Protein: ATP-binding protein
Organism: Pedobacter ginsengisoli
Amino acid sequence: MKFVTAKDLIAQLKNDLIGKDSYRGVTLTYSWLANQFGHFSLGFIPTILIYTLLKAKTSVSSPELWAAFGVWGGWILFELFNFLWPLLFKSESKRKALGSGKYTFQPAWLNVTFDTITDLLYFGIGALSASLICEFHQGILITLIVLVILISYPFYYWYSTKMFIQNAGYPFQLRLSQWNQQIKEENKALILNFLQHNEPGKHMLLFGSRGSGKTMLSVGIATESSIKNNSCSYVTAVKLLCLFFENEDNPPITKPGAWSWRNSSLLVIDDINPGGNVQDDILSAAQFYTILDNLSCGEINKKAIKEKSIIWVMGNEDPDRHAEERWETLLEKIGVEKSNITTVNLDAI
């Protein structure tokens, strides 16, 4: 489900470009804009400096061309080195890239490649813009226009993707490949299968004690879904219990393109129970269901839980718990098919 429209994107641009970040805070979209302006400047400023030097100290013809393409070429070489070095030259990183090293989940290399190409386009636009300011050249103008046209889709994709990530409300930024703790291969396969299937109504019960990395893993999984432009939401169990009484006819004021937990495609429910030395559930499945099935919003709550994909971040898994006390039983009571429930225990290594 995609909620970020062109109107939302323009509204976010307005919020990012107008006003002072000293009192409003810095958003992911603002940071991305600043990053790309930095790439533009790293193409623009060196081109001006090198052109000035060539013009004053040498008799080389077309110094504006030498300066622009020299700077752009230098950044292309740098980015190729920056991208290929971990893959080809560093032995430890090479093992990671081939899946036998420290990467538990492989990076999305196509996504990283697209990001590198986007950076190079901004380097080029900066260098060619400087060249045109130094001396007009029709070929440079045409090339610059082509680059500006080419950058339109990467700009829309990355800016809107940052909106999907920031509107999810994650407590921190983390890609799935950055999660590097130990996990059983069968559990890893279950997680990848959960992530790769986009049909709604999939539920993952993620068990683990304190320090097992369950919150980081849930955020990493959801972030990969956000990067695919799915509307994800992060919420703690205590916060969600309050939201169960919120009527959809009176939604809260939201940011451009934002969504509520009910109409998100993937929901992360964190801190359901602490785990670790706290063996018993502070919030039982029965208590959760009682608050979920309240008189004012019970039916729409159950419908939302049943129809969306959810990562339930739990505490300790107790195989001896009575069936009526198990969270799987709660989901089946709501109407979730047993085949749509996946259980991952990070303590089982």
Notes: The longest strand covers residues 203-207. Residues 4 and 257 are 5 Å apart (CA to CA).
